[in-house]
Amino acid sequence: MQTLKQRDLTGKRNSSIELLKIFGIFLIVINHVIQTLHSSNPDLANNDYVLDLNMATANIQQLILTILRYSGSLGNILFFICSAWFLLDNDKTSKKKMLQMLMDVWVVSVIILAVVYILRSGNLGMKMIIKQLLPTTFSNNWYITCYLLFYPLHTFLNWVIHKMDQKALLKTTLVLSALYVFANFVLGDVFFATNLVLWIAAYFIMAYMKYYLVDFSNNMKANILMLVLGIAGNIALVCLTNFLGLRFGLLRGNLLKWHSFSNPFLLLTAISMLNIARNVHFYNRAVNYISGLSLLIYIFHENILLRTFYRPLMWDYVYNQFGYEYILVWMLVLVAATFAFGLVASILYKHTIQKAVTAVCNWLYPILQKIYGKIEKVILRLH
């Protein structure tokens, strides 16, 4: 979902990074489809399709679904560290890009609101309508809201990082990692962590790696080993939690306990994947095109109205018509359908409505600049 692009010496975007972004959004779609399995639908008389994936289970398919539920956190971390890698070299903030993102999110939200309002004959509730009209304010897609908060902050973080020598940066990185990765991972939000704080901690980790672990970052064997350790470590952790939950009642409902941005195994996995992708260079126009739609795919498929009222209907249909004997197969089918919907909707939007949105953005941006300039002058004159 990040907008900065890595380019090789020919000036073309490195498609390995773009492919990684596509993989990241696909992981997020997997997570959201599985998440719907334990989300009830207010329109259904019963919610028999719901599975509590947080509970310890002897059913291997259900355990695999729980493990795959962690794909969302991995996808989000992938997007952020890809952004962080390039933002570390960029000391400017494109306010126009932020405005474009805000407008795209709002327009898509309003379009879906209009369609769903008609389909449901206005049966949405005022709270849901207000949320849909103010999607970024109410963090309907939390990643986008958090990114819009972090993006202008990164220039200040870059200034701080560049003022530090290696020893100071290492100390800062270790403290942030101890508090907001490891301690937060084990104990929860004990140190008042938020996603924004976790992102700042991860940003410092990426900074130290980029500036002082260059050889390691480019070592394919080391990163492949780290990738294996990250994936195996997370799977082992979930399986161990499940094993203990089956034997101790107090631990039964903790399978998703480690589903967070601070999961060090997922962080290791994402960092190693980025390092591997950076060192594999190829160019593919189709890959780059689809990658460029990642933000739109995200906001279309995860719209709050669609995920609340319609996505549960897919699982309800599967449960009532076929049962869950082959639930993993049906999961893949629903993921493919959801991803395809997001992709098609994004393509249609990009080549139609987004052109008008961009035109409005280009017209509105200088006006907002002038207004801000006047406000700034008034404030600076105050004594």
User: What count of helical segments does DSSP give?
Assistant: 16
Contiguous low-pLDDT stretches (5 residues minimum) are 1-10
Q: How many beta-strand runs?
A: 0
Shape: globular
Oligomer: single chain
Cα-based radius of gyration, to the nearest Å: 22 Å
- What fraction of the residues are assigned to beta strands by DSSP? under 5%
Give the H and E element order.
HHHHHHHHHHHHHHHH
| Mean pLDDT figure | 92
Question: How would you sum up the major sheet?
Answer: none
Q: Give the N-to-C terminal Cα separation.
A: 43 Å
Helix content: over 70%
Helix vs. strand class: mainly alpha
**Total individual domains:** 2
Topology:
Elements (H helix, E strand, L loop, with lengths): L14 H21 L24 H10 L1 H17 L7 H25 L6 H8 L8 H22 L2 H22 L7 H18 L1 H4 L2 H28 L16 H15 L6 H7 L2 H8 L2 H18 L5 H24 L2 H29 L2
How would you portray this structure in words?
The chain has 383 residues and is an all-alpha fold. The protein folds into 2 domains: 15-349, no CATH class; 352-383. It is 72% helix and 0% strand. It has 16 helices and no strands. The radius of gyration is 22 Å and the shape is globular. The chain starts with 14 loop residues before the first helix and ends with a helix. The relative contact order is 0.16.
